Amino acid sequence: MALKYGRPIDVNPRLTPVEALPPAAADARLELAVRPRRNRKADWARRLVRENVLTADDLIWPLFLVDGSNKRVAVDSMPGIERLSIDQAVREAERAAELAIPCLALFPYTDPSLRDADGTEALNPGNLVCRAIRAIKKAAPDVGILCDVALDPYTSHGHDGLLRDGVIVNDETVAVLVQQTLVEADAGADIIAPSDMMDGRVRAIRTGLDTSGFDAVSIMAYAAKYASAFYGPFRDAVGSSATLTGDKRTYQMDPANTDEALREVALDIEEGADMVMVKPGMPYLDIIRRVVDAFHVPTFAFQVSGEYAMIMAAANNGWLDGDRAVMESLGAFKRAGAAGILTYFAPRAARLLGA
Ligand code: PBG
């Protein structure tokens, strides 16, 4: 017997036998002055009234780097994503240029032997990320390069700052982040993106850049960055999940908060940020909208590793149409008001957009 909501459906007596109902009247016309479906009746009509359009210009493509040459190492929790040796990253940068993707974001996987408690490899002008910047700038000079400033790829404990007696210390960390900034700017980074969530770091970084002749280098502040479960696969990719002790809740934001995001963004703008970012992306579209409405500054969304992994997992199981889910998720950021999106789907989206 057929069941619906746990009840057998054929014991529900119909009040009116089907045969007794009047036939669906062909002339049952509603007097509607407004029929919203008219604007959706054909592809040309939908294109004509479309409110938000995604283009390749909206995309920032994050790449993971690894030491070596001719190496592409799969990231298990991010199907389709690989850590790239510099020569391979250069090839992807050339592809970015062909696809008209304006900017790359570089994230190094640092060999465990180079990590220490204070993340000193971050200050090595010959470190992986700096060598990659130089090589990419040479091969694809018209592609912008964004670089994170934070110590987590370099610390043995996996935190973004310096750990002293169990506490991530703020001011001492900021001083090191300024040095990290100068090392990356000197290598040729176009945008410095502090992702550490220390207080006062944007002003310190701006001052550091300006007093060292790097006034043309931009700052995109990870302004509202939440302590999120969705960064898990990224930490696998950069090798910090194995080492991370504890969590980042004393510096990254509480996912319950929204007014606090506005205060963080206000501070970063005041301190000299040219652009701000909200992170993660899709679970935080409300924050993007509030920030855009309140500040009218270029606001970026980071569709983070966990969001990528979710879409890929469902698509690879045949549970979602991957291409459509990718484009819909990216379109949602535009609708929320984002100026652009950091997304691992950047090349796929650019290809789908026909660039
Ligand atoms: C490092 C950093 C993280 C991400 C970008 N920069 C991880 C973290 O804060 O733990 C996350 C990106 C992603 O998940 O795709 N501070």
Query: Helical amount among residues, as a percent range?
Result: 25-40%
Read across the widest sheet, the strand sequence of neighbours is 3-6-7-10-11-12-13-14
**What is Rg?**
24 Å
Unreliable stretches (pLDDT < 50, length at least 5) are none
What is the tally of beta strands?
14
Fraction in beta strands = 15-25%
Distinct compounds present: ligand PBG
Largest sheet: 8 strands, parallel, barrel
User: DSSP helix count?
Assistant: 11
Task: Write down the secondary-structure element order.
Answer: EEHEEEHEHEEEHEHEHHEHEHHEH
First and last CA, distance: 54 Å
Mean model confidence by pLDDT: 94
Structural class: alpha/beta
Give the overall silhouette: elongated
Question: How does this structure look, described?
Answer:
The chain has 355 residues and is an alpha/beta fold. It is 35% helix and 17% strand. The protein has 11 helices and 14 strands. The chain has helices at 43-49, 86-98, 128-139, 170-187, 201-210, 232-238, 259-271, 285-295, 305-316, 322-336, 346-352; strands spanning 3-4, 7-8, 59-65, 72-74, 82-84, 103-108, 144-149, 162-164, 167-169, 191-194, 218-225, 275-279, 299-303, 340-343. An 8-stranded parallel beta barrel has the order 3-6-7-10-11-12-13-14, surrounded by 9 helices. A two-stranded antiparallel ribbon has the order 1-2. Strand 1 (3-4) and strand 2 form a beta hairpin. Helix 2 (86-98) packs across helix 3, helix 4 packs parallel to helix 5 (201-210) and helix 7 (259-271) crosses helix 8. The protein is elongated and about 80 Å long. The N and C termini lie far apart (54 Å). The model has no long low-confidence stretch (mean pLDDT 94). Bound molecules: ligand PBG.
